[in-house]
Structures are given as C-alpha cells and as structure tokens.
Amino acid sequence: MFLRAVMVLILGAGMLWASGDPLAAPEEIKTFARRATANQTGTKAKLQSLLEAVFRPAEDGGLGMTYDNSHTRTVSEVWQDRKANCLSLTAFYVAACDSIGIQARFAEALNTNRWRRVGSVVRLERHLVALIPMLPVEDLVADFLPQLRKRVGVYRVAILDVQRVRSLFYANRAVEEMDAGSLSGALESAKVSITSDASLSVGWNIYGVVLKANGQSQEAEVAFRKALLCDPKDSSAIGNMETLMREQGRIEEAFRYRVMENDVRKKDPYFNAFLAEEALGQGNTGDAQKWIKKAIKLLPYEPEFFLTQARVNIMLGKTESAVKDLEEAQRWAVPGERDKYDSKLSAIRKVQKGEVETK
C-alpha cells in the first residue's frame, strides 16, 4: 500500500477538536507576541524578535520550543506543550504574527520533500513554513530555526490558504489515528479534512486509505478517483488505485495506473533519491548510484542528494569522488547546515591520510 501523507506523520493518538478551530490562537499567545516585540519598531525586527523568543530557553524568558513529531498539535496545544512539528509551529507563528498586526502566510516549501518508508507504507513528507512578504525587497521565511531566512536561493514555495492548511491538519491527524489503531477516529478526521477543502487531493487520498483499511474497498475507490480529479498527477492516489485494482484482480486497469504512476514518479527527484536510499540500505550500490544520479540530474542543487551520492561512492571505494560530492553538498546547503558537511569531509580526509583504520 502506498500512502503519500503531507507533513511528517508518525505515531500519535488524538481526537477531533470540537471546541473550535485548531489554528486559532488563545489570548496568552497574543500577549506573548506583543511583549516579545514591544521594544522593536520595524517589521523585520519584530519578526526576528518574535522568532527568537519562541526558541529562547524558558529560563531566559522564551518559550523553549522544541521539535516534536509525536502528533500534529493545535495552536493551543503548542502553547501548552512548547512542542510542535512543522505544520503546528507554522500555525503558531502565523497566529502570533497576526496578533501584532503582521500578515504572515502559510506556504509549502517545495524543495524540501522527503520520501520515507514506515513499515509497509511509503510516505511523502512535505514541509510547511511561514512566509512574510517584504515588498519591494524580498520575502522572508520563518522555519523551524531561530532566524528568518530570505526566500530567494533557499525555498521554492507554494502559498496555501487557511482552509487548505486546516485540511492538511486533519489529514495528518487521520494518519496518526490510523497508525495508533483508531480507524473510527481516522475516518472522522479524514472526513473533516475533505470537508475543509474538497479540492485537495491529499485529503481524498488519505480518506481512501482509511476506508480501504476499514474494509470499504468500493468507497475507497471512489475517494481515490476524487483525489485524481483534484490532481491527476497525484502519484499517491495513482499508486493506491493501482494497488486496489491489482488486489481485486482488475489487472488491465492496474497496469494502466502503473504506467501513469511510473510516468509521474520518474520526474520526481525526491522519489528517485528515496529509491537510491532503499537500494543503499540493501547494499545494492549499482542501483543506488543509478537512482541518485537521476535525482541530481532532475534537481542539481539539493545538498542531501550529494550526501547520498557521497555515501554511495564511499561504499564503492571512491573517496575522491565522495569528497567532491560533500563539497558540492556544502556549496548548496544553507549556512546553518554547513557544519555537518565539514565534519564528514574531515572524517573522509583523515581516512585518506591513514589517520584512522578502515574496514
């Protein structure tokens, strides 16, 4: 079964929030935002002060926010727990900005996708950020880091309206509840997701996955078809339709969806990188090399792709090539992430000089 779930989705239990909007900010957040920015005058200074206050340790007067993906929290829960994943933190920051009169928008960072296998399920994990228009200069992005970043050169983004984010929130919850074994809770969350934004293919696809897990194959097929009406290139829904057709013995139909799926996926650099990682994990360096080269050809400025290629070259004994790969990864990495490539380069150079033993 292939499930393409938006945002990072892992185990976690939860209920629907009948008491109100999961993206709404309680008064405490508004008060916090106003205090954190009281001494600043310019928009950028206010935004930076607010972001720093979110991550500053509690003993220094901040919230001490930490990343936690156990479940997708409401904005109120983020305030209570001081923990969040990317969707929840973005919702928190957007709400805080609104309380000080600054319009921040939800956006999906298109160049940060990640494919991951969890058991028998393959997931597409996407990333949400807050984008603040700063005309006539440059848009700023607030991510899960204590500093603002310029949009140019780092992010390709797609602006999302609030209804779509709300739909993504409940789609996340549906997956979390299904993982926790609560099919009834997953079904309710999936219904809220498609009610919030009936034009979002992700919601319909996850609704179909939950229906199928609940033994409602006919209804699942309807949901997958609606997902494809929303987005004919949704490889998640295509893959799920192919699996469903095959399980029902509808081989010709399944084959057509397989052809569609392969055509969509072959153009996705992140899926090719995922295949490279899988092959690498199985010790198949030939396939790993083939897939990661394809990923880099499709997207030649993703540092993680070069890191994977470096690992392949190390397994092949090509340390000089691995060094070049890491240097290229470092070149494309954002400033805060370059240190990790420094340490890897240093380790390889020590091996080259015979300073450490190699097996």
Description of the structure:
With 359 residues, the chain is α+β, with helices and mostly antiparallel strands. The chain has 2 domains: 265 residues, Serine Threonine Protein Phosphatase 5, Tetratricopeptide repeat (Alpha Horseshoe), CATH 1.25.40.10; 84 residues, Tetratricopeptide repeat domain (Serine Threonine Protein Phosphatase 5, Tetratricopeptide repeat, Alpha Horseshoe). The chain is 56% helix and 11% strand. It has a 5-stranded antiparallel sheet with strand order 6-5-4-3-7. It is flat. The two termini are 38 Å apart.
Please summarize the sheet with the most strands.
5 strands, antiparallel
Straight-line N-to-C gap: 38 Å
Overall 3D shape: flat
Number of strands: 7
Roughly what fraction of the amino acids lie in strands? 5-15%
CATH homologous superfamily of the largest domain, by name?
Tetratricopeptide repeat domain
User: Strands of the largest sheet, in order across it?
Assistant: 6-5-4-3-7
For this structure, the CATH topology of the largest domain is Serine Threonine Protein Phosphatase 5, Tetratricopeptide repeat
Question: Into how many domains do the coordinates divide?
Answer: 2
CATH class of the largest domain: Mainly Alpha
Structural class: alpha+beta
H/E element string?
HHEHEHEEEEEHHHHHHHHHHH
Mean pLDDT: 82
Relative helix content: 55-70%
- What does the oligomeric state look like here? single chain
